Amino acid sequence: MWWDERLLGLFKKNLQPTLTYWSVFFSFGLCIAFLGPTLLDLRCQTHSSLQDITWVFFAQQFCLLVGSSLAGAFKKTMRLCLFILFISSLVISLVFVIIPFCGHVGVLAMVMAIAGLAMGCIDTISNMQLVKIYQQESAVFLQVLHFFVGFGALLSPLIADPFLSDTNCIQSNITQNGSANLEHIRNSLVPHHPGNHSRFVLPLQGPTATRVSYAFWIMAAINLPVPIAVFFLMYQKGMVPGFTHRTGTLLSADELAMETQKESDRSDPGVAAQENQSQLGSHGLSLCCQTTKFLKAPYTFFAIHGCAALVLFMSDGIVGEYSAFIYSYSVEQPLLLTHKTAGYLPSLFWGLITLGRLISIPMSYKMTPRSMLFINLIGIMVTFLFLILTQNSVTGLFIGTALLGLFLSSIFPSMLAYTEDLLNYKGCATTLLVTGAGMGEMFLQILVGMVIQTQGNYSFLVCGVSLSSLALTLFIVLLVLDSIHPRTSGGSSRKPPELGREAVPYQR
Fold first, then answer.
1. What is the model's pTM?
2. Other CB atoms within 10 Å distance of the CB of residue 269
3. Burial, 122: exposed, middle or buried (Cβ in 10 Å; 0-12, 13-18, 19+)?
4. Residue 116 confidence (pLDDT)
5. Does residue 505 come out as left (phi exceeding 0), alpha (psi in the -120 to 50 range) or beta?
């Protein structure tokens, strides 16, 4: 059994905050995936062109990066983190309610920018708090966390699908001309790549007929229990003004992590000596919070941050560019798939990412994050090579897409757990890793789109091989940094999987 009593005990001890963070990440996933399928209906609602409406993508993605960076300033106490999570999850529900009333593309972009800020805060804080609570056991719980974002991202397009327009939702004389290939247009829309839309001409004036507002209101109702759950956790901890109910003292995230660590290590005979050594010689425990100690950090401290962020820049960039361009690649030479068949490819890709995150939950208990990362990064590169070798095969494309989704699924939570292990689980790297991943998803999509436009359709797979090879190379550099990074900076207490789960922690 991959779930032992000690891990179950940690989970029960932190049950309410853990379930709350998981639910908030479901809210994040619900909000991140609805925009693509509903974009044509929102275009009709705002009477805007395709080039104008795609700026809504940019507003959301850019503010998500800003929110991810700013949220790192809220890591001092759980009190402030819970307040930010409550506001952010409530904002997402309000955004779903407000979107149907946005009649201008500028107003819609502003609303989505606010949603992006909330999503960025959720992304950073949820990852950071789980890392601080579970520390060396965080890999399993981070995999569950990222399963929930995948589940939310899988659910929102399914909710929206029954309410999407089957014909052009702006009725005019040229409606019939633009309606025949409406599904093709919807699948071809690529964020941050306006040149991809210039060949489509759709009406801008005329009466609007769309039912997509019902989808947004359903998602608002589904998301409403999330801020309620955060509010209830705040109430349980006695931090709601005007309420005196208190089941216990509210600890900071660091204090909660320390209590959890003490509980899990109570039976280990070497813990006391290890703690004394850390207190005497370590500058890594508070390295993230104290400027003077931060400036005295070894160069490997900064290099580990940079390498890990760049690996995620590449891997999340691959997720963004593959999901954006796989449809367009498959309907062109040499495959020439029908629009309906090609439309299954993005769904297959995201479905296997969600399935892969579910499979990674038990795997992360048996394998170290480093091993999972190495297997995944090699798998991504081999999959792209397989796609190049089978570029004329439809079956090969579907198999490669499925494998790519599986290998990409667990990279972010595994990298976060591994990097924080090197830096002694203080939440140091979370903000940088989340920001680096988001930047990769946005900017590499633009870069690959430009390469495809100038070099041709075949360059799509060549870009994938190049990015995956670079990600693997950077990870190897990270392994070298791991071997030379000073272990007196905090003394990781990670347990090797081959020693029983009750074994004494080893010194790296």
1. 0.80
2. 8
3. buried
4. 92
5. beta
